[in-house]
Specification:
Length: about 90
């Protein structure tokens, strides 16, 4: 974990950007000794957002399952996918 004072963002931007991209890790910035910001690469941010979105969808699906929504076995899903691919629907 890299923690730097906020002045480093202005003075060492290229080093911070390179670290975030090569190590795929965020940099935590402080202001007056207190946590202030987190800087990360666009790739890491996009991945994080996609994982959070997937987690939200999985939680929603699990809530539906627990509330009694119809579920399908793996075989049923495979058969349905084959029907769709083969155009027999």
């Amino acid at each position: 974990m890299m923690i730097r004072p906020s002045t480093c963002l202005r003075n060492d931007y290229n080093d911070i950007a390179d670290f975030c991209k090569t190590e795929n890790q965020p940099v935590f910035l402080t202001k007056n000794g207190e946590g202030d910001l987190v800087v990360m690469s666009m790739e890491a941010y996009t991945y994080r957002e996609e994982m959070l979105d997937l987690r939200e969808k999985l939680l929603e699906a699990e809530a539906q399952r627990l509330s009694g929504a119809k579920t399908f076995s793996l075989d049923e899903v495979n058969n349905r996918m084959e029907e769709i691919i083969n155009g027999s629907i």
